[in-house]
Amino acid sequence: MSIRESLPPSLEDMQTPPICYHHIPTINGSFSLQELKTDEAYLVPNFELAEELVAHGVDSARIAISDCSSPNGSPPGYSKTALGKPLVPTSPFEFDESIVIVLPTYNERSNLEALVATVGKYLTADILIVDDNSPDGTGQLADRLQGEHRHIHVLHRPKKQGLGPAYLAGFEWALHRNYDRIVEMDCDFSHAPWDVPRLVHGSRTADLVIGSRYVPGGGTENWDARRRLVSRCGNTYVKFFLGSMIHDWTGGFRCYHRDLLLKMHLETVRAKGYVFQVELAWRAVQLGADIRELPIRFSDRVQGQSKLGWHSLIEGILEVPKMCFQRY
User: Fold this and answer.
1) Domain finish residue from 89, 114, 133
2) Both 194 and 262 in a single domain?
3) In a shared domain, residues 68 and 198
4) Please, which residues have CB within 8 angstroms of residue 98's CB and are 6 or more apart in sequence?
5) Contacting residues for 141 by C-beta, under 8 A, at least 6 apart
6) Tens of pLDDT, residue by residue, the chain (328 residues)
7) Structure pTM?
8) Do 14 and 137 belong together in one domain?
9) Residue 80, class by beta-carbon neighbours within 10 Å (0-12 exposed, 13-18 middle, 19+ buried)?
10) Torsion of CA 136, 142, 147, 150, to 10 degrees
11) pLDDT, position 306
């Protein structure tokens, strides 16, 4: 379920009936999923149980994580914008680790402000916007947001040089400032903001957490046949050369431990386009990192244009076989 499907602000403020919560204290052999109505959601006591539900096919946007200590079974700290829409905590999740979310942008003015605001509803974290001199004024908007919010930072780059270099610049910035966790995500709402806390929590038991489309509970939304074919074929191609220890090699929704990135010798990374995700995942495998994949629903962008082009596809075809012989 995409945040883009939310009702307009004038309608979001209208009063809606209370949510009916299905309290799930544990999952056992007798557990069976229910088809949720627009005013229903699941209530679980922790992230671990939430992950079990998502793996069973439950939409993460309809799961409330709470200690269930409030009266009448109503979870403290959750609200909703509209019936059937994502639950919103009244205060964002907080973790002991210092966290920064790296957002590479190129012509994302139509998405940036809304994404930053929405992410802030779900997680307490710093945000680094890495802008490649977007001609649509994304960089100027980022500067304004930085002036209005202490947790937002901006890194300007002189020109568009590819996804890989943008992330590497963001990672270097984050490592120099000693963040414990570095999250990467797209700026177009393809990655659900309410899933970011899931990745951060998952990093407590893994060095690298990947939001995966290709594990039980994961999937894609609003993709045409060509996009699905390219993604499936790309991951199959990578698995042929590198192995099937990772199901979603090309996924770009991730949470890294600081220590893992430091071991990767990022200055030697060569990939420019989307194969950058494959190269870093392969380096993590070679380093013996604990890698965990959490199911996500990846939704195609509505605003703006996709950055996936033939140059990125050709780069992947040529570079992946070479990675077989790389050791770190």
Assistant:
1) 89
2) yes
3) no
4) 126, 178, 179, 180, 181
5) 109, 112, 113
6) 333 333 344 434 445 568 888 989 888 877 788 889 988 999 999 999 999 999 999 999 999 998 644 444 444 468 776 777 899 998 999 999 999 999 999 999 999 999 999 999 999 999 999 999 999 999 999 999 999 999 999 999 999 988 999 999 999 999 999 999 999 999 999 999 999 999 999 999 999 999 999 999 999 988 888 888 888 889 999 999 999 999 999 999 999 999 999 999 999 998 888 899 999 999 999 999 999 999 999 987 555 455 555 676 787 788 999 998 877 7
7) 0.89
8) no
9) buried
10) 170
11) 53
Q: Are residues 213 and 301 in the same domain?
A: yes
Tally of domains in the chain: 2
Tell me how crowded residue 52 is: count the other CB atoms within 10 A of its CB: 16
Are 113 and 77 found together in one domain? no
Q: Clarify whether residues 35 and 154 are in a common domain.
A: no
Contact 24, 44 (CB under 8 A): yes
Burial class, 233, CB count within 10 angstroms (exposed 0-12 / middle 13-18 / buried 19+): exposed
Same domain, 84 and 117: no
* CA-wise closest residue to 215 among 278, 299, 291, 295: 295
Both 234 and 167 in a single domain? yes
Q: Which position has the token pair 């192995």?
A: 243
Domain that holds residue 133: 99-323
Reading the block at residue 15, the tokens are 């009063």
CA dihedral 246, 102, 166, 114 (to 10 degrees): 110
d(CA 292, CA 234) in angstroms, rounded, equals 20
Token digits of residue 263: 């071991």
Instruction: Please give the Cα distance from 264 to 145 (Å, whole number).
Output: 32
- Separation CA 278–CA 271 (nearest Å): 9
Task: Enumerate residues 6+ apart whose C-beta is below 8 A from 44.
Answer: 24, 25, 50, 53, 63, 64, 65, 66
